[in-house]
Amino acid sequence: MCLNNESWSLFRIVTNIYNSVDTITSALKNGEAATIIDRFVKWNCNNHKDTILNVDGSCNGIPIRIGFGGIFRNNGGLLLSTFSSMISHSDDILLAEVTTIYHGLHMSIDMGIDDLTCYSDFLLSINLIKGVRIIIFMLSLFKT
Questions:
Q1: 15 — alpha (psi -120 to 50), left (phi > 0) or beta?
Q2: Taking a C-beta distance cutoff of 8 angstroms, is the pair 53, 83 a contact?
């Protein structure tokens, strides 16, 4: 086995695994049993009458890849559809977030959704999209 151009013996690997197990076990011990509390969570449509698309992207550095996905719900919270995918050889979180919105919008067209509200937690992608909308609006003013 080779890590960072360093060969490890089987003994060293096994020792590291045992040490990791001990560390995790001692971290999880707190002397008393954990109390499980049921917590009911309800999806909130924020009083929208249209379909809701929630999107998110993620980035994992090793190996380099980004993932993205979304979920469509109606205004009653019922699941309509989901999607997810990944892009290898990239760690650009903006790419993940914008790609997610792009896929969600194309999927909503394929599903025949006319009224859509899209939620994203990545402000930069939202501002970029709003900026494009403003530029398109300004260009339409100059055409007339």
A1: alpha
A2: no
Q: What does the alpha-carbon distance between residue 80 and residue 100 come to, in Å, rounded to a whole number?
A: 17
Q: Where are the domains of the chain?
A: 51-143
pTM above threshold 0.70: no
Over residues 101-144, the pLDDT tens digits come to 999 999 999 999 989 988 888 888 888 877 766 666 556 666 65
More confident residue, 29 or 70: 70
Q: Which CATH superfamily is domain 51-143 in?
A: Ribonuclease H-like superfamily/Ribonuclease H (3.30.420.10)
Residue recorded with tokens 């550095």: 61
